[in-house]
Amino acid sequence: MKYSEAKKAIEALSSKYSIDMEGNYLHVKYKIYEIAYVDPDERYKVCIWSKKIFSKLTFSNKLYMILSELAMTPLDERKEDKKYQVKAFGGVLNINIFGAAMFLPEDKLKTKFTYKEIEQLKKREDIPLDWDKVELEEVK
Known about the structure:
Elements: H1 3-13, E1 17-22, E2 25-30, E3 33-38, E4 46-48, H2 51-54, H3 60-72, E5 83-88, E6 91-92, E7 94-95, E8 101-102, E9 113-114, H4 115-122, E10 135-139
Antiparallel strand pairs: 1-2, 2-3, 3-4, 5-6, 5-9, 5-10, 7-8
């Protein structure tokens, strides 16, 4: 499980939950109080500040399951893969939802790709690029 997936799942439980990320620490807050965190340096480690209070929270069992799944995930698999834009011909490669490639800047087109996705794009015959000449720009 990625940090972003855990954040989304926890915040979907209740509007009273929020997530703070400090470095790679995922801190869970209930209203304004920190109630738990997942250790970024040690696999399988979930810290709960007060088990008595935690057990009374809304959806506490589901929350614990999400935190546990994140804690079980290998440390190097928790972070998002870096994404890149493929730049060529003075534009950015866009892939529409139907899979056709184009260089037109339009809304709702995929313009950011992981390195693994770029490797798959290189194999496609409908993308006429000399991949040795394109520029990959990291997206933050």
